[in-house]
Design goal:
Blueprint (H helix, E strand, L loop, with lengths): L1 E8 L4 E6 L6 H12 L7 E3 L2 E8 L4 E8 L7 H15 L1 H4 L12 H20 L33 H22 L5 H16 L37 H4 L40 H12 L2 H6 L2 H8 L7 H17 L4 H15 L10 H17 L7 H10 L4 E6 L6 H14 L4 E6 L6 H15 L11 E4 L7 H15 L3 E6 L7 H14 L3 E7 L5 H15 L11 E5 L9 H10 L3 E5 L7 E2 L3 H9 L1
Parallel strand pairs: 6-9, 6-10, 7-8, 7-9, 10-11, 11-12
Antiparallel strand pairs: 1-2, 1-5, 3-4, 4-5, 12-13
Helix pairs in contact: 2-4, 5-6, 11-12, 11-13, 12-13, 13-21, 15-16, 17-18, 18-19, 19-20
Subcellular location: Endoplasmic reticulum membrane
Organism: Culex quinquefasciatus (Southern house mosquito)
Keywords: Endoplasmic reticulum, GTP-binding, Membrane, Nucleotide-binding, Receptor
Length: about 625
Amino acid sequence: MLDLFTIFTKGGIVLWCFRGTNQLFAPPVNALIRSVILQERSGVYDHDGLSLQYKLDNEFELVFVVAFQKILQLSYIDKFLSDVHLEFRDKYKNDLRAENRNYTNFEFQADFSRILAAAEKWGKKQATLPKQMRSYEDSHKSKKTVASMIERRGGEEKPATKKSVKIVEAKREEQENIAPVANGSGGNEDLIMENRKKMMEKLSGKKGGGGKVDKQKSPKSPPQKSGKQMRVWELDGKSKDLPNLDRCKDRPEDIKSDFSSTDKMIGSMKGGIQDLEVESDNDYSEEEEDDDDDEATVTPAAKKSGGMFSLFKGLVGSKNLSREDMQPALDKLKDHLISKNVATDISHKLCESVAVKLEGKVLGTFDTIAATVKNTLTEALVQILSPKRRVDILRDCMEAKKNKRPYVMSFCGVNGVGKSTNLAKICFWLIENNFNVLIAACDTFRAGAVEQLRTHMRHLNALHPPEKHGGRSMVQLYEKGYGKDAAGIAMEAIRHANDTGVDIVLIDTAGRMQDNEPLMRALAKLIKVNEPDLVLFVGEALVGNEAVDQLVKFNQALADYSSNENPHIIDGIVLTKFDTIDDKVGAAISMTYITGQPIVFVGTGQTYTDLKKLNAKAVVHALMK
């Protein structure tokens, strides 16, 4: 049932390989290395109908990879990988050591077949067993109390207050009074009610047995004032006040912008975009971090013996790292990531990938477990946020201009994230670099969407008037009103830009929820018909777990609802409202981890110059503080 099982070193030397079919497995294994292992991800990786899983041996620097058909649901793969890993390293540990390394003789076929047969038998047995639900007492949640979740320095416990003691005593007394009655045959309800009344009097501090409260008559409500009169519409659908409803009748058609060509922002965004600077206001001090490292480093044995020598043994790298040693530090880092707005599922996967990378590794001298885990996670986060491919929009625009065609960018996302606003910021950056832009108003649903883009066009043209660019208008708006087909408007706008020599077309689309199938089909149609050079997903930095759902479903919809063999999915991310989150920058990690696509722009304010480029190290520094 397995298509491939291979064992190779981290340097790329294949030690042993099993092939179940004659299929060429180099592309999927190389894709696994490039997209998962080097990116320090975990879990199952799908490639061309195959599912691949891997396990690392950090002591001998080995990689174990298994591949099987994606349609198969093999429950024994994790156990099988672990069993093969233990059997192979125990059998050939002398040949794998660095001092006498020998990669010539690995006869493992008989052992592999035996372990595979045992794993398949175990899987069949597990499939026949009825699944039992875990009780609440067996879960980790039952062992957590409110007091245990409150962190205090020094380990002191908060003394119980008089109010809490009073409530506990009252509840205990109620149970003692009710229990004999409940166990009796009569079930005296009057006695139960009397005991409850006494308990309530004790809690409220009342003395006496009456407990009756005189009900006061509620005062009469004041007479309601006459509000706004409803407008009366005639049978023909018109109102007598219709002439007064037109707010634009006395407004001039050509409204002047508040901006001018002498504004300070002119020329401030020529060339590349400045890097983002993130300041952390968290009061997590280095002193607390050192205390946490010491707590996570001291092993239970060291705590029991209590001597200075046992503490020294806990600090110095004397054994290989195990998952049990790292678990306290991983749990704390996972909670820290969630508190910084990283999605829960992503936090779990990140910590799992760190555990896989460090398991079996020997600590260096005086390296603490907490510091090692934190540094490894920091390196993984920087690598996740770093672009995997070149992102140079200005260069791509110049290349398209040389080929005498417009460069097309499309913006998509959910409602209210700032697509039109950040489109205007990107437009300002482009005209600062001497590109003329055509904005396609393809949001034909939201009231005021076209007017909003027209206002931005007026402001941008005021900042860069045609007189300073040889009579050429730097920003134009292509709109056909409301209720039209967005894909058709985008196609006409691109054709118009091609005919008039416009350099760049920015397509503004309507906001839509990721679960709205008709609107997602319309978006997939727009991208399929017009084939933009860059599809940008606009998401806000305020979201947590919702970022995962949005990006996954947008990508899935663009792939499912397109008839192309290689559908065009999301190419990059625009992260907006970054100035509202302080140091809770976890949304950047969640979005990049899901798609693997870079964050191209970051919106940080309300002016046209508030557009930055993501600085991976600065974001991770704020995240880990």
